[in-house]
Amino acid sequence: MTHTKARRHEVKNGKEESFEILRAFVSSCEILSTHKRGLMQQLFPSPEEVEA
Fold first, then answer.
1. Which structural domain range is residue 32 located in?
2. 42 is a domain residue
């Protein structure tokens, strides 16, 4: 591989790795958001649950 092709390959791999890290971060945020929603529902039940 020439120097330019090698550099392009490095950049491509770096981008792919960055996207994987970003996907993992977004997934973690979604999981935490779901968990938080569940905790909030335990603290503050809906009016229907209180009346039952």
1. 27-52
2. yes
What's 2's DSSP letter? -
Q: Does residue 52 lie within any of the structural domains?
A: yes
Q: Which helix (H) or strand (E) holds 13?
A: helix 3-43
Total domains in the fold of the chain: 1
Alpha-carbon 9 to chain mean position: 26
Residue identified by tokens 């529902």 is: 41
Q: What is the CA radius of gyration of the chain?
A: 22
- pLDDT tens readout for residues 6-43: 999 999 999 999 999 999 999 999 999 999 999 999 99
CB 5 within 8 A of CB 13: no
